[in-house]
Description:
There is one protein chain. This protein is of the alpha+beta class. Helix content is about 60%, strand content about 15%. The protein has one helix at about 65-159, and strands at about 15, 30-35, 40-45, 60. Strand 2 (about 30-35) and strand 3 (about 40-45) form a beta hairpin. It is rod-shaped and about 155 Å long. Bound molecules: zinc ion (ZN). Zinc ion binds near residues 24, 25, 48, 50 and 57.
Amino acid sequence: MRRPCSSGSCASSGTYSMPLGEICICEELIVYLTSHTSENPRRHFWRCRNFKTPKDCGFFLWDEDVGVQSSGTQRIVDMLRIELEDSKNKLDELKKKLEDTKMKFEDTKMKLEESKNKISKLQRKLDCELRNMKMAFAAILIVVLAWVVSFCFLYGRKM
Ligand SMILES: [Zn+2]
């Protein structure tokens, strides 16, 4: 901010641009002045440079009000910046969680695939075992039958 009055020593008037984007309606540089009236002695203010002419737009602002306006605007900007930062952080967190969930999903998918493979392997093993058992049972049946037949044959001959 180009202010003629920084700390005590100052020129009482001059032409300056307002730093707040506030422009005189005349779109001309506004004037910085010091009041010397008995109600507002040594009080600084900004005013339309066309004051008391037909072109006067009526712009007037006490210097201390510029500060109030400035800090108010600054506060809003700061708040918005904090909110933006907050939203950014939340977005990053959500992104991380999404990535995490994706990885877990991928992991679960792989485990499911593994389980599927194991189940089909077990199924094949079970089928094989069942076939072996059937063959063993058939062999035992044949042995028993052969034994019964030979027993009957021997017994029949003795009778
Ligand atoms: Zn003006």
